[in-house]
Amino acid sequence: ALQEKVPTHIVTIATLTGHAVLAMGPAYSIVIDNGPAARTKFAQNIQKAGHDMGDPFEISTVRREDYDFVRAHSEYADVLQCNNSPSSRTPRGHQFPAAFLIRASGLDKPLCYSHFDIAGSSGTFPQVPTGAPVVAMTETFLKSHC
To answer: Which pLDDT tens digit goes with each residue over 67-102?
Structure first.
């Protein structure tokens, strides 16, 4: 019988923010680690794999002020998802959404978590998507298990 395994690293992928495109350019994915994932150098490993395979990544960092940004300032909410401005007009506009994902999902606990923002690398809608970050992930995850 199959035994249930506890995940050792969780990754989310989204075309999350226009800020990612402004910050890094239209051809790059962004990887953002939480603290436990950063200690494993996951972002550096995915960046190297992406560089080697032609699926480029830039590394961004979630900082204290990003968690402060998503902290609710009301007794009626636990966490804030966004403000009233577009991410492209908000300082740290691709980092605070990652802080929201971490806090809202409970991944601020000691479990490795990384978020890929592929807004810049996924292609322009309605054209065919690029497939980013599949190549870098394949190189990282399959190579480590072969």
So the answer is: 777 788 888 888 777 777 776 677 677 677 777 777
Inter-CA distances, 65 with 28, 100, 114, Å? 24, 12, 18
Quick one: 1 exposed, middle or buried, by C-beta within 10 A (0-12, 13-18, 19+)?
exposed
Total number of domains in the chain = 1
Instruction: Give the SS3 label for residue 13.
Output: strand
14 φψ region: left (φ > 0), alpha (ψ -120 to 50), beta (else): beta
Q: Supply the pTM of this predicted model.
A: 0.78
Residue of 44, 57, 47, 33 whose CA lies nearest to 113? 33
At 32, phi and psi to the nearest 5? Answer: -130, 120
93 burial (CB, 10 Å; 0-12 / 13-18 / 19+) is buried
**Domain of 27, in residue numbers:** 9-143
> Is 61:99 a contact under the CB 8 Å cutoff?
no
Q: Which CATH number do you get for residue 37?
A: 3.40.630.10
What lies within 8 Å, CB to CB, of 78 at 6+ separation is: 72, 104
Residue 46: inside a domain: yes
